[in-house]
Predict the structure.
Amino acid sequence: MDVPVYDMQGKAVGTMPIDEVALGETINAALIKQAYVRYHANKRQGSARTLKRGQVAFTSKKLYKQKGTGRARHGDKTAPQMRKGAHAHSKDRTREAFRQDMPKKMRRKANRNALLAKLVDNEVKVVQGLGFSEPKTKAMTAFLGAIGVDGRALLALSPDADKSSAARKSARNVETVTTCRADQLNCFELLNHRYLVIDRADLEAWLTGPSSKTGKGAKPSTSEIADRAAAKKGEEAA
């Protein structure tokens, strides 16, 4: 599959070959849905609560006198039958865990398959040299219009913070644009947006990086795990 590559002015400057077989060859809807539900469930905090009478932010003053008004007897406004009052049977429980698990190889296959679905629908905009000289919202909107983005877009930027700073700041005031790191693309973000806008170098790095390991090599070796643990320990000590 040859994907068109654009420059910052929206002009086609070439194509980028992408191996469909490496992305799953065919769209596996069941796998993508399973991964999407997992990502969505793992975003839940599980901290839903409702208020008891003693927790509602109302005065405890009696509404009106007990007798002589001809009305029903009432205490304060926190009663469940009152507007904005407490719940009769409030939810007061420990934090719930909605977290779901999924094998790493399946997650990576789902992410790559979601990219394939975007490519099939011509919703991936590959840009040669994606970057801005200065943060400017007007420049971002002009760029998106030039490459044909007319809906919600996921802007995948370089992991290098200095390199992507101007583009990230230019996009933060555009309501229909969400930014993320290019090395953290996943099917949840891909499917929540109509378009994916990404630099060619970043897409190539994602396709050939750790996310491409969907076979036996997906599991890190013992030495790699030890190196990561040592690096994390060093960061905590610093």
